[in-house]
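Reviewer comment 2.1 asked that we show a complete input and output for one of the modelled complexes. We chose the zinc ion case, as it is the one discussed in the main text.
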Amino acid sequence: MNILGIETSCDETAASIVCNGRRILSNIVSSSLNEHKKYGGIVPEIASRRQMELINSVVKKALSEGKLTLKDIDGIAVTVSPGLIGSLLVGLSFARALSFALKRPLVEVNHIQAHLYANFLVSADNRQNKNTTLPRLPAVGLVVSGGHSSLFYLKNFSDCQRLGATLDDAAGETFDKVARMLNLGYPGGPMIDRLAATGKNNRVNFSCAQIPESADFSFSGIKTAVWYYLRDHWDKKKVSVNMVAYAFQKSVVSVLVKKSLALCQKKNVKTLLVGGGVAANSALRDSLWRAAREQNIKVFFPPLTLCLDNAAMIAGLGYHFLKINAHQRKEGGN
Ligand code: KG4
Ligand code: ZN
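Response of the prediction step:
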């Protein structure tokens, strides 16, 4: 069963075809990120205008790369929320029109849950995973992106409960804001990740709010702490950007690791799925691998390309929703 996925929730215009919810036949992502860089963040109006221009050609490219035509598409999955409203409308309108014209079923997919689904996909850059075991459900899911930081309990694909979330800034947003203070440009996560690798030190320390006994996060405090630190120390040339990047990243990673594993213990699950742009962070990957192994928990990260926004994760999760819908229709008919 070939599902066409469409994703336009932020700056990306993305289309992908996934076979049977697992094998990626094509995965096209066109981003307008360069046009937003000078503003230090995404400008919704620019994003949705670009998506209007690109959606047709991106879908055509996904078909040609998958060596398929529209006749080979069995269903369509599209991101419905959360996201920028103008951007979502472009993808939704396109998908609804296509579903109507092709007489193929349409399912609407939540972008955040789809980030966790990226762990179930097989792409060109993780072909070796083809025969390895799939993540087992139930699982705990950590989604850390530019707009969201949440912890989920994932019973099955249609039962995903959010048990924790950020009370203020998202993890990726915090990386971006701290990077801006350090004049590193946008998006800042990858730059901080790179600089932190050579900034190891014990002189600079920041801490994140812990919110004991809760699966919620808060990152606005550490952002302010970095700001005050830079205000008081920058001119004295006693610290390097790398050292600040290291200390900031260490603290964010530590709270993400701690809360994710605590929820695994609480829910008594042995599988942890991670997704979203910040899942590309090398320190988070290393720390979680190590800490999870000690507790006998299996942690899954998508390959780097599937950590960021893409339509393959939408098509993959959409496949399961379409199957569930078809099953319910059949049951209802009996
Ligand atoms: O999932 P995503 O592509 O978009 C949203 O749905 O928000 O995530 C983008 C976010 C940005 O905030 C970016 O700075 C962050 O992911 N990011 C990283 C890394 N790569 C991307 N943060 C930390 N380390 C990275 N290596
Ligand atoms: Zn995302």
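The longest helix spans residues 241-267. We note this here for comparison with the apo prediction described in Section 3.2.
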